[in-house]
Design goal:
The protein is of the alpha+beta class. It is 34% helix and 27% strand. The mean pLDDT is 93.
Length: 337
């Protein structure tokens, strides 16, 4: 019988399968799309995420990231990572590298989709396969999470993201977060001649309309657009629990606050390691607490920033406050990194 069946072959699902294989467990991934899959994401890995990739034995080309920079048109403030470098990497390159590592370790990827789950005794059945455990790594709007009744309602304003790439040389080794009244723009160097620019906002507009709020950034994007616009949202996903019998949730399926602090992929990689550790120890219920501990700083800091962002008057103070209190800004970046 399969030890770990993974629904979803994105970074979170593949990382889970790799950790399982390294732990001597048989892992099978069910994924309907060919690798690699592109999607809207910031593409910046915190130092903890870059270290997690190395621990998996996954080499991937990208641009080293020195820290985070906040800008609002008049002010700017930098905070360098204290514990190593982050990594700016195209999602397609990250996905392909994880898929290669999984294949090296004998992880089987089965074309298909998990649309139903049956649990009985010491096993779970899904997609015509039987396994001891099923891991739902099926994304932000996880069908499995919904099927298991693990979603919680959210009445807060919904936020959405749009991203594309520009064929220009990176002008910095920081991830830049540009703040404006209606949203933020995130600039991540991902290659020697390529930068990713993502915009996040609760206002539904076209990508070009969002970029018009950032004239200083727009002036730097002289090169042609290298990729089409991709979107994601609503971003915030509240989840009742990450364990339901013999099914465990990982990655965006496990819950998501916002892309504002750029922790998504790094948290997914670390959570995958924690999940497999709990299964190996025979303590699957311990994964809930492990996930809450891993994500606590991210949830608290991102939640506080989002609450500040909701009010126009306080949102205008974010960059000035970071500039006047650089030690506090640096501590926040360090906590997330």
């Amino acid at each position: 019988m399969i030890d770990v069946l993974v629904a979803g072959g994105g970074p979170a699902g593949l990382a889970t399968a790799i950790h399982a294989a390294l732990a001597g467990m048989e892992a099978v991934v069910v994924e309907p799309r060919p690798t690699p899959v592109d999607k809207a994401c910031g593409e910046g890995l915190m130092p903890s995420g870059a270290a997690a990739l190395r621990s998996l034995g996954v080499p991937v080309e990208g641009r080293p990231l020195r820290g985070i920079r906040y800008l609002d048109g008049r002010r700017r403030v930098d905070a360098a990572f204290r514990g190593g470098r982050g990594l700016g990497v195209r999602r397609t390159a990250l996905h392909a590298a994880l898929a290669r590592r999984a294949a090296e370790l004998g992880v089987e990827v089965v074309p298909g989709k998990v649309e139903g789950v049956r649990q009985s005794g010491g096993e779970v059945e899904a997609a015509g396969l039987r396994a001891r455990w099923l891991v739902a790594a099926d994304g932000l709007h996880s069908p499995l999470r919904s099927l298991l009744g693990l979603e919680l309602p959210d009445r807060r304003p919904r936020r959405y993201g749009l991203r594309r790439h520009y064929r220009v040389a990176p002008w910095t080794d920081f991830v830049e977060v540009h703040w404006a009244a209606e949203g933020e723009a995130y600039v991540t160097p991902v290659g020697d001649d390529l930068v990713g620019v993502a915009v996040l906002s609760s206002r539904r507009r076209g990508y070009r309309e969002h970029l018009a709020d950032f004239p200083d950034l727009l002036a730097r994007l002289e090169g042609p657009a290298a990729t089409p616009v991709r979107g994601a949202g609503p971003l915030r996903q509240r989840v009742r629990a990450r364990v339901a019998g013999r099914v465990l949730l990982v990655g965006d399926a496990a819950g998501y606050t916002d892309a504002l602090t750029g922790e998504g992929v790094s948290l997914a990689l670390l959570s995958a390691q924690a999940l497999v550790g709990c299964l190996r120890a025979g303590a699957p219920q311990a994964y809930e607490g492990a996930w809450l501990r891993l994500s606590r700083r991210h949830r608290l800091l991102t939640g506080a920033l989002l609450e500040t962002r909701r009010h126009r008057a306080s949102a205008r103070l974010i960059v000035p406050a970071a500039q006047r209190l650089p030690a506090l800004f640096g501590a926040a970046v360090h906590a997330l990194a």
